[in-house]
Design goal:
single chain; 442 residues; alpha/beta; six-stranded mixed sheet; four-stranded parallel sheet; 13 strands; 39% helix; globular; binds pyridoxal-5'-phosphate; binds zinc ion
């Protein structure tokens, strides 16, 4: 089969470009580019045959098809030679049945898609494997790419640095100084990337990296580059596959630059067009109240959108005021009968801590999504029988200070709702036993 995909202008001017061209916006009209697939060729295989093929490959070892992304290669990026692919076995992440947490909320079909259980600890690996593999393809075919680069709130940079170093390609990382965690900062450093800590926020880093991208020898790895979206869209395919090809009722996803919510939608639309599924879920995009430009736009029925200056939030990976994929995201939410809601700092940290007590270990962004879930249940927007998936975007282990701050309250400060502070006491049997008794009787 001659599977094929290319860049196409998303603003309707229709201009197309090969995926091996180093281009991020349409030369005609400056619109964002999207990857288009030759759907007629894809449709020549029946839905049943696609499912069988995907199940046959899933989590198996034949490189690179055991990867959750490359197991769907024909639908993701058919134009890369297998021997150019850099894969770290992305995807295949656990769907955590949130039985106890769901019970507390009156839901019995609540699941957390643990996208953070990945090589660099966030869902960003899904898209980065596609982008860095394409860079290898371009270099092999002719291209003069000296380095890959990105601006980041901490997870894109970790992912880019890992894949680039595995591929032997230099990586340049622009981070907002003191706005990523220690864990996120050390990831690109350990991988040997040139790591630049700038006196600005993410939006400021993004401006500079977009200027650097005018030089064709530095390849831009931010999600303005749709190759990443193609890998990320496998989240939807994997969720559906994990439910024996059943489509859930609701998916709740945290949003910052808004590439991931767009990717989620694209994955479902593609499966729908191929007949793999026959309905679409509804999508809720969750924002931090302190970085909520999409929420504000939603309040106007999406008739208006203004970039804002994002305020400091514990959900640092979504502290973005000028999201690059806002138009794609709005299109997605309209198509999926979607909603946007927001969470305050107290709401997001309480939600994360509350769910942690039922076996999870949530990052603050997952906390934002969980807080929105709680609100939707309270509003009866989500019904007890609904199957609900919350996208957990990163592992909580990258954000220890978030949890330490929650459970370590200074004397005199108000205790948070789900506080569990360590108790210091003498190494004395009777004293220990008494403390245990007090705890269990409480
Ligand atoms: C990147 C990221 C997000 C936001 O994804 P967007 O595509 O920018 O909306 C959310 N959570 C985490 C942990 C991330 O790394
Ligand atoms: Zn155009």
């Amino acid at each position: 089969m001659n599977y094929d995909a290319w860049f196409q202008c998303s603003e309707g001017c229709g201009e197309t470009y090969p995926l091996t061209e180093i281009i991020y916006r349409c030369r005609n009209c400056d619109g964002l580019l999207e990857v288009q697939h030759d759907m007629d060729v894809l449709k020549q295989r029946s839905a049943a045959d696609w499912k069988t093929l995907f199940e046959h490959r899933y989590m198996h070892t034949q490189y690179p098809y055991g990867s959750g992304v490359w197991g769907k290669k024909e639908l993701v990026c058919p134009n890369i030679d297998d021997n150019k692919i850099i894969s770290m076995y992305e995807g295949g992440t656990n769907l955590f049945w949130a039985e106890r947490f769901g019970e507390q909320l009156g839901l019995h079909d609540l699941w957390i898609k643990q996208c953070g259980n990945s090589h660099t600890g966030s869902f960003k690996d899904l898209g980065m494997t596609v982008l860095v593999s394409m860079v290898r393809q371009i270099i092999a075919e002719s291209g003069n790419i000296r380095a890959v680069m990105c601006a980041s709130t901490g997870d894109t940079s970790a992912s880019l640095a890992a894949y680039a170093s595995a591929a032997g390609i230099p990586a340049i990382i622009l981070l907002p100084k003191a706005k990523v965690t220690r864990e996120q900062l050390i990831q690109p450093i350990a991988n040997g990337a040139l790591t630049l800590s700038l006196e600005t926020d993410f939006d400021g880093c993004m401006e500079i990296v977009q200027k650097l991208a005018d030089r064709k020898d530095f390849y831009l790895a931010n999600s303005i580059n749709s190759l990443r979206i193609e890998g990320q869209k496998t989240i939807s395919m994997e969720i559906v596959q994990q439910f024996d090809w059943e489509v859930p009722d609701w998916i709740i996803i945290p949003g910052g630059n808004l590439g991931n919510v767009s990717a989620l939608g694209l994955g479902f639309l593609m499966m729908h067009e191929l007949g793999i599924i026959d309905k679409l879920p509804r999508i809720a995009c969750a924002q931090a109240e302190r970085a909520n430009p999409l929420y504000r736009s939603y309040q106007t029925g999406f008739t208006e959108f203004s970039a804002i200056t994002a305020q400091a939030t514990q959900a640092t990976a979504i502290q973005i005021g000028n999201p690059v994929s806002v138009h794609r995201a709005i299109r997605t939410l309209k198509r999926f009968d979607g909603i946007v809601d927001q969470a305050t700092e107290v709401e997001l940290s309480d939600a994360a801590a509350r769910a942690d007590r039922t076996g999870l270990f949530n990052c603050p962004h997952t906390g934002v999504a969980l807080a929105v879930l709680i609100k939707m249940v309270e509003r009866k927007q989500i019904q007890p029988d609904d199957r609900v998936i919350v996208i957990s975007t990163a592992t909580g282990l990258k954000f220890p200070d978030f949890k330490v701050a929650y459970h370590n309250v200074a004397p005199g400060e108000p205790a948070p709702r789900y506080l569990n502070a360590p108790i210091e006491l003498e190494a004395d049997y009777e004293g220990v036993l008494k403390q245990i008794g007090t705890h269990l009787d409480a």
